[in-house]
Write a sequence for this structure.
DNA sequence: AAATGTCGCAACCGCCCCTGG
DNA sequence: CCCAGGGGCGGTTGCGACATT
């Protein structure tokens, strides 16, 4: 039993979007919101596949996209997140307000990979290229509980819902590449608190409801202040409501953390 | 100036997961 | 519990822009 195609391929346009198509899609979504992508093209008068519309909107037309060059901070954050999450571009994109998974994926493949190779780091494993591949643990995220990892801050926050500790441990690889081999520690969320709290190696962040919906830096955001600046918190320890590790739903799906 | 090579990005493809009936 | 539909994601491709010869 085959899966029905997502659209009538015979009657859909493909390839680059025209200005008129963009305008139609934008005006339709402004009027009706992002709804059923499958029926959207017909409703909007577009001869496009619903998936194509979704992709165009998410990757190019969304008003909150931050286009332009990646900053050095974003570079480093992407590298760190990739070392933790692997090719989970959507998760990584979730930590970079205004950036899309596709954009980050492209940027990784074209710039960061080369950058890491130039540094002598294997972009796939985040290990030194010359490093013999005997140390399996070095490439694997450790979910081992670590009391020490809980750090002092945990004592100050007993209402944590989802607590993530990104801990750096000293080992030979770590000393060569101090940003790598970060450890994640995950505890299940509770339902008692109205905001999520997350920890990084450097700071504590409390997420407002808006941020938990993935609307960081929006006008309604109370923890980011709606400044549009977003938060690059993993390494800086800023308190900018950074939705680290896909907490948009309030429940962490551990499968999303698996390394490939 | 033309030809060729390389790079970067937008878009597509196909698979997987989630959800509702 | 099973199945189909819809949405989302990661990998790949195609093409235009730019650089080099």
């Amino acid at each position: 039993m085959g899966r029905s195609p997502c659209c009538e391929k015979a009657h859909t346009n493909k390839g680059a979007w025209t200005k008129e198509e963009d305008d139609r899609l934008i005006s339709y979504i402004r009027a009706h919101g992002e709804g059923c992508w499958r029926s959207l093209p017909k409703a909007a008068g577009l001869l496009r596949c619903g998936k194509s519309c979704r992709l165009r909107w998410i990757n190019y037309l969304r008003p909150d996209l931050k286009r332009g060059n990646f900053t050095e901070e974003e570079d480093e954050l992407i590298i760190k997140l990739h070392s933790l999450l692997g090719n989970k571009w959507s998760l990584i994109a979730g930590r970079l307000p205004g950036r899309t998974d596709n954009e980050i994926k492209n940027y990784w493949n074209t710039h960061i990979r080369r950058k890491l190779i130039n540094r002598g780091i294997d972009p796939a494993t985040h290990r030194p290229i010359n490093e013999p591949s005997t140390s399996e643990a070095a490439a694997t995220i450790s979910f081992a509980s670590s009391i020490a990892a809980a750090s002092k801050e945990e004592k100050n926050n007993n209402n944590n819902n989802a607590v993530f500790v990104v801990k750096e441990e000293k080992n030979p690889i770590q000393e060569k590449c101090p940003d790598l081999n970060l450890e994640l520690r995950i505890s299940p969320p509770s339902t008692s608190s109205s905001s999520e709290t997350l920890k990084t190696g450097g700071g504590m962040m409390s997420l407002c409801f808006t941020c938990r919906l993935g609307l960081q830096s929006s006008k309604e955001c109370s923890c980011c202040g709606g400044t549009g600046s977003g938060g690059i918190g993993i390494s800086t320890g800023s308190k900018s409501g950074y939705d680290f590790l896909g907490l948009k739903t309030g429940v962490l799906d551990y499968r999303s953390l698996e390394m490939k």
About this structure: The longest strand of chain A covers residues 163-168.
